[in-house]
Amino acid sequence: MSIIGKLIKTGISLNQKLGSESTPGEDQQKEQLRKLIETAQNTAFGKYYGFSDLLKAENIVASFKSHVPIHHYDDMHSEWWIKQQEHPDITWPGKPHFFALSSGTTGKSSKRIPITDDFLASMRKSGTSLIKSLPNFDFPEELFESEMLMLGSSSHLDSHPSGHLEGEISGINVSNFPSWYDMFYRPGSVISAINDWNERLARIVDGAPSWNIGAIAGIPSWVLLMLQEIIKHHKLTNIHEIWPNFSVFASGGVAYETYRQDFEAICAKPIVVMDTYLASEGFFAFTARPGTMDMKLVLDNSYFYEFIPFDERGVDERGELLENPVSHTLSEVDKGQDYVLVISTCAGAWRYVIGDTIRFTDLEKFEIKITGRTKFFLNVVGSQLSEEKMDDAILTVSEAMNLSVNEYMVAAVKKDTNAYIHQWVIVCEKEVDCGHFGQNLDNALKEANKNYGVARSKALKGIEVKMINKEKYHQYLEKTKKKGGQVKTPKVLSEEKMVELLDMI
Questions:
Q1: Tell me: the pLDDT tens digits for 406-417?
Q2: How much is the pLDDT for 21?
């Protein structure tokens, strides 16, 4: 047992005890909002919406919600953030040195999210909070002197004519690491700056034997691909033959469960999987205790949250926000209810709809799980299928048929008879009877969701399934520029995108 690892683990544990929270969550959130408004009161946004007056209000939360409208990206960008590329003090003091490019999963052109110095500091603070939680898991001392592999997008950043740098948030974070991080961060600054995903992956595979990896962070689909390539190239039976101290995987970006079986197949011993909620707009939550993948919401880090019920109080039948939706604060939420997350942050995002739906699983610990994307809500003919319901059905059918299915795509498609079907494309390495899989999937969805069952008896006339292997799937991702370490792959497609996919396969 290494004395260095033991000392590091003990030091983190002591720091955790000294920094334990005592302020109630609602009070923390009110204080975060007050600080955000106070800091931004002299910006163009703050003056326009009277932030100085909001600070004098008896109920600052209610006043803020009544004076500042809810913003989606398009209006936030066109009215404010595009000006922030050229001028200081627009939605946050100063002029951002970075903008994060994020195309998300919609396939549209890249969004540009401002990344301020205060925002970078908040991301680092959330990361520090995650590290402080590690003693809860009783990891072996060897982990604390191992290296961490972070599989993200390229850390190469492009210069913009207005003077800032642009890239994906993982690349911006890595480019701001201090030089001494390279002592334990892998794949290191040189490899992480390679733009081409295939070349970067090849360099990681080549370098793997010289690293002592104890922890990995990244999106499950790309991390799994990386580990499988390492095993294949070095002729291993499992990943622990080359990295015996690999103990923890910090997952994020997409739901992990459809990948669990394949991760377990390449590991010689159990690993701890911690979920993280890290997006271009912030580092909002992480798994903080063993025995669950639910995530603790970060409450004291320059984020103010609102929660819009994902039902008739907040959205229409297509899952789009109502003009004046109900909006709850932390003390008003219910366990088990799905909410559209709305954020205000030190990046100059104000009542901003991030596009995710979340659910509280523990109101005392403020733990949540991500249940999907508002854009992944499939309801063209009243089927009301969330990403979570679709994932659950895929898992049910896969287990029953002894299959491994990580990825899928689905769309509502109008047939020649003017009736709709759900067209599914399932990614699987085995030869499968598509009709049999489709029948089982249809039954699983009917059992899981009564609205789907009603839709199947009316406007939704059936489902059709096509199977493709991972090679074909990766070809599709490359063609649609969705290939890379930090890319969230799409699940719900438009009818047009599905037709393009079917033509390709």
A1: 899 999 898 877
A2: 55
Under the phi-then-psi rule, with left for phi > 0, alpha for psi from -120 to 50, and beta for the rest, what region is 200? alpha
**β-pairing verdict for 408-414 and 420-427:** antiparallel
Q: Partners of 209 in the beta sheet?
A: none
Tell me the pLDDT band of 300, cut-offs 50, 70 and 90: very high
Integer Cα distance of 35 and 484 in angstroms:
37
**Helix H or strand E segment including 147:** strand 147-151
Note if the bond before 187 is cis, omega within 30 degrees: yes
> Which residues have CB under 8 Å from 474's CB, separation 6+?
483
pLDDT for residue 131: 83
Phi, psi of 48 (to 5 degrees): -65, -40
Q: How far apart are CA 235 and CA 229, in angstroms?
A: 10
DSSP code, position 167: E
Q: 2: number of CA atoms within 13 Å, CB side?
A: 12
Q: Phi, psi at residue 350, to the nearest 5°?
A: -125, 115
Which residue has 């899952």 as its token pair?
A: 319
For residue 283, give every residue at least 6 positions away whose Cβ sits within 8 Å of its Cβ, in sequence order, or none: 122, 123, 126, 127, 276, 277, 298, 301
Quick check: 303 pLDDT over 60? yes
Edge to edge, the sheet with strand 111-115 lists 111-115, 98-102, 165-167, 158-159
